[in-house]
Structures
1.
Amino acid sequence: MPAVGTRHEQARELLNRLQIPVCPVMLGNRAVFGDSGAVGQAAQEYDERGKGASEILQVYKYILSTLVQLKDKDKQEHHEHQSELNRAAG
């Protein structure tokens, strides 16, 4: 997200209106992202206690949680489909 302005908020509002999920964590416009990339490191390697590293970790946790929820939903839908097939087979 930019250091100044509301462009990120406008984008979030639009995506929400379109019912597109948006990660609640925003990555700040931090020097660590450029600095770490310049030396071939991730933000967590370059400054493991910094705000950039914390933001990346929060995004990772959000993505992981979302994938687990999708996997659970897929398993449930598969189970329901199998139950329907079993009932139809009699």
Note: Residues 7-89 form one domain.
2.
Amino acid sequence: MLIDCDTCVVRGDACHDCVITVLLGGPPSGVELDDDEHAAIGNLAQAGLLPPLRLVPVHRAPNRDIA
């Protein structure tokens, strides 16, 4: 899982309550988590030990050549 804060729709509004901000101190340029790390953070958040990941990525439409 690639977490790119620059592409998060709620960046700014939800940063204060996002696990990435808690762990790293501010929105980074990007973080890559493997499946085990993602699951571990989810379990810690579910137990109330960390805030959840608040990432809402922007879904961009692929560029299409119009002829």
Note: Residues 11-60 form one domain.
3.
Amino acid sequence: MEDAANFCQGGCGLDPCMGCCADALEVVTPVAETASRVVWCLGSPLAFPIIFFFDAAPHTQESSGWDVGMMQAPMKAPLICCMSTICVPCGQYYVRKYTVLNGDMTKYKLWQGRHDGPHCCAMFCPGAPITIEAGTHGEQKCPNLFLCAEVTCLSGCFAPCCAFDVSRDIMKEERSLGMDPVEARFEKCQGFFGELMACAACTACCLRCSSCLLGCIATESDGAQELSGEARRLSSACFSLSRTCFRGMVAVQIMAIGCMSSQMVHEHRTNDPNTVQEPKQLMMDRS
């Protein structure tokens, strides 16, 4: 055992090999660090134009069926676009109540029944929390409160996005609408950068764990310690790249939700003869 410990502390007998690996990482790490600094601006709404590098085929504006395209919709319903971008939960509350449900909250159910079934522990153990059955949680007694909870916290940090997806899917199904071409570009972009973010994060975790393990085991090996340090630097660069991708994806998604929410509101106002008057219109009529 003592001989094995001394063998590990001495670099597992592979000190020259570790030195070569450290030299290789010393070449790669500055490139990764430079890349993470160069793309920092993409962790913001400035990343939105990137979606146009992705192909929209086979979706077109004509096949989508929407009255107005996603990029033109903010001009038709600017207030809802701004509200959905600045305060996503408020925008999704408005969209669900006045656009999807047409102001009739008696139709409201948690996620409109789209997320029914086992979740969390119940997915692995029947009877354990949490199983959702829309309409059985007392939503009809206070639908507005339940809707507020749905768009703010019931799905965690992504509750507004989850509520939006439900509203969007319902409107598409009820009106036989397809996918807007810009929406298709957005989804492909999110998928690509989501995979890139996951790969960068996994690589960073593996490098960090390897660095810590190597630094603890081979304490007497100069090559191992150098390799450990370089692996830690590369891990930090990969984590930075992953964080930038995540921030950019969130920023682009918020902007896309604003555009698509305004598109949904315009569609509802234009092509629904039973559209209810909205709060602002009601106040103007009373005055």
Note: The CA atoms of residues 193 and 245 lie 6 Å apart.
